Amino acid sequence: xPEERERxxxxxxxxRPRSAGSGLGLHLVQQVVExxxxxxxxxxxxxxGTIARVVLAPVRPVSPGTP
Length: 67
Fold this sequence. Notes:
The protein contains two helices and two strands. The protein is an alpha+beta fold. The chain has helices at about 1-5, 25-35, and strands spanning about 40-45, 50-55. The protein has a single domain (about 1-55), classed as 2-Layer Sandwich (Heat Shock Protein 90), CATH 3.30.565.10. It is an enzyme of class 2 (transferase). Keywords: Kinase, Transferase, Two-component regulatory system. GO terms for molecular function: protein histidine kinase activity. This is histidine kinase.
């Protein structure tokens, strides 16, 4: 749900209270990705699927003409 999207990165937050997870998964993903210069976004629409987009910074700048 859209109201949950802002909370998914909070430690120990779970959409379903009785789920088997610890509620740390997305929090840890966000921490690791941000420490490497990237970011994580959660995208989705009510009644549709959810996409977790992870964007990481390149290891080195790409030179013009590099495939």
